Amino acid sequence: MRAVVLREFGAPEVLRPEEVPEPERTPGWVTVRLKASALNWHDVLVRRGHYSSPLPHVPGADGAGIRADTGEEVVIVPSLWWGEDESSPAPGWEILGDHRPGTCAELVRVPVECVAPRPPGYSWEQAAALPLVGLTTYRALFTRAGLREGESLLVLGAGGGIATTAVAFAAGMGACAFVTSSSEDKIDRARELGASGGVCYTDPDWAARVKALSPGGLGFDVVLDSVGTWQDALRALRPGGRLVVLGASAAEQAPIDVRGFYFGQYSLLGTTMGGPRDFTGLLRLLDTRSIAPPVIDRVFPLDDAAAAHRYLEQGSGFGKVVLRHD
């Protein structure tokens, strides 16, 4: 079968298309013939060696295609062995494509509980783009933060898959969403998804500016931070608000004013991609609310995975980068 293979860690050029053996049959696992896969920043970190993936390796967490044994149209749930504890993953939890062959291939083999029906009306590209960002965003906003209809949400960064998905989820739930971004163009595009507005984080005083846009100027009920700027994020929260952290793309250390934190009655919530039960909740949300499908920024052929990674790393896109497998 055709696959994108990583034989060394490094720049996008280390990703090369090759012919590799088809996955072996394993009891309790199913094979999916993939129609499309989607990239995440997580895949960049895998390529760079941050997760010590075995070499040679086929990366990729997200995908959608045809289940080989039943002919069903499915999406891949890339959360393996989450466990029974809803509050956190089990010690053996891993993300598909970290240590096991992933979705940048014509075929992928996953545990039977890690496939779910393709959402009605979704293209193959949209279906492939949903699982990781959809599952991560659903857990962050609803399982962890408990975002409710009528509340306010600030999403740090407007262009990535998590950000665009969070705005769509909030709008569909009847929450009021705002964003930060590096450009007015991305803020305008976030408005098209349902955001009420936003500010450019290039302004040194962006936290005060965006707080002034919140209901009553009191701050936001929830701030979703995938970049690691806790100090500024806390400044944008209302007293008693919830800061949900799911990334550290800009900073891995975050000093905070401890006294101000506890006097502000803030909640600090860490989160990751969720498990199968979160995905069930996500599909229920899509069934019961009017929520726009994932935004697709650009589609590349599978063999052009290196070019897709280069484009993703530029950070200039808006929405998801997808590989087509046809």
UniProtKB/TrEMBL annotation:
Residue spans crossing the bilayer: none
What InterPro entries is this protein classified in?
ADH-like_C (IPR013149), ADH-like_N (IPR013154), ER (IPR020843), GroES-like_sf (IPR011032), NAD(P)-bd_dom_sf (IPR036291), Zinc_ADH-like (IPR052711)
Q: Name one GO molecular function term.
A: oxidoreductase activity
> Domain Enoyl reductase (ER) spans what residues?
10-323
Organism's domain of life?
Bacteria
Read off the Pfam families from this record: ADH_N, ADH_zinc_N
Q: PANTHER family attached here?
A: DEHYDROGENASE, PUTATIVE (AFU_ORTHOLOGUE AFUA_2G13270)-RELATED, PTHR45033
Q: What is this protein called?
A: Zinc-binding dehydrogenase
Organism encoding this protein: Amycolatopsis acidicola
List the lineage, top down: Bacteria, Bacillati, Actinomycetota, Actinomycetes, Pseudonocardiales
